[in-house]
Amino acid sequence: MNLLLKLFNKGKYIMTNFKNLFLIFSIGAIALPGVYAETNNEKGLTIAKEVDRRDQGWGNSTANMKMVLRNKQGEESSRAIRIKSLEINGDGDKSLTIFDTPRDVKGTAFLSFSHVIKPDDQWLYLPALKRVKRISSANKSGPFMGSQFAYEDLSSFEVDKYQYKYLRDDKLNKHETFVIENYPVYKYSGYTRQIVWIDKQRYIPLKVEYYDRKNDLLKTLKFNNYKQYLNKYWRAHEQSMENHQNGKVTLLTWNNYLFRNNLSEQDFGRNSLKRAR
């Protein structure tokens, strides 16, 4: 009888400790950071998707832009530009850029069809030659009209153009930001990666660092003076692209944004390049 009682008490002790261990393990699994968290790649992708989601539905827009080119010595030249944009569901957006001044570039027009996966389609109309030049898919890293913006910088942001990695949280000019790294999928890209500071509250980019094919810092793009349109869409009215390797800077100042102007795909055909005035 004493033997049976001892065995019973021993079994009860083992079961009690087993339950305690199970409870401790369960609590620990919940408390341990990262057990069910996203990976850095998944978090980077989640942030990029939210940036894209918040800028959907604007339809079409027009705007005026002043482009200032500044060389290493501080000398400047400026250009007056008009831009039309069309949002395309299921693919990248379309844009038409028209130069009004100075005289030597007046009438020059640039048409861009961004795509999600395949290379963008881009054409440049040069009035002096009276012909349309197609931009090669292998030459999108070249400078656009003497600026520090490459042709590939002018395409609309599409999530599937990149792979992503969340790096850290950071504070930039009093703004709380996510810092993510973008890796271009496009094989002819002039960049190995981009580091982007995303405003946590509005999910808009505040700064982008571009790294060249040698993985050296090439350029930095900064966005300032954001304004909201249609109670939803944020647009930066000032942008500066600084090239750290040649000392040149391109400044963009935007104004007269208008949305939902009844533009259609017919306004963005190749023939629209020659008609642009």
Quick recap:
The chain has 277 residues and is α+β, with helices and mostly antiparallel strands. The protein has two domains: 36 residues; 229 residues, Clam (outer membrane lipoprotein receptor (LolB), chain A), CATH 2.50.20. The chain has three helices and 13 strands; from the N terminus they run ααβββββββββββββα.
Tell the overall outline.
Answer: globular
Q: Can you identify the CATH class of the largest domain?
A: Mainly Beta
- Roughly how many Å apart are the termini? 106 Å
Secondary-structure content class: alpha+beta
CATH superfamily of the largest domain: Lipoprotein localisation LolA/LolB/LppX
Give the % helix.
Answer: 10-25%
Estimate nothing, just give the exact number of structural domains: 2
Discrete helix count: 3
Main beta-sheet annotation? 13 strands, antiparallel
Give the overall pLDDT as a whole number: 89
Strand order of the largest sheet: 6-5-4-3-2-1-13-12-11-10-9-8-7
Q: In percent, how much strand structure appears in the residues?
A: 35-45%
Describe this protein's structure.
With 277 residues, this protein is α+β, with helices and mostly antiparallel strands. The chain has two domains: 2-37; 47-275, Clam (outer membrane lipoprotein receptor (LolB), chain A). It contains three helices and 13 strands; from the N terminus they run ααβββββββββββββα. Strands 6-5-4-3-2-1-13-12-11-10-9-8-7 form a 13-stranded antiparallel sheet, with helices on one face. A hairpin with a 5-residue loop joins β1 (60-70) and β2 (76-86). The chain is globular and about 55 Å long. Residues 21-34 have low confidence and may be disordered.
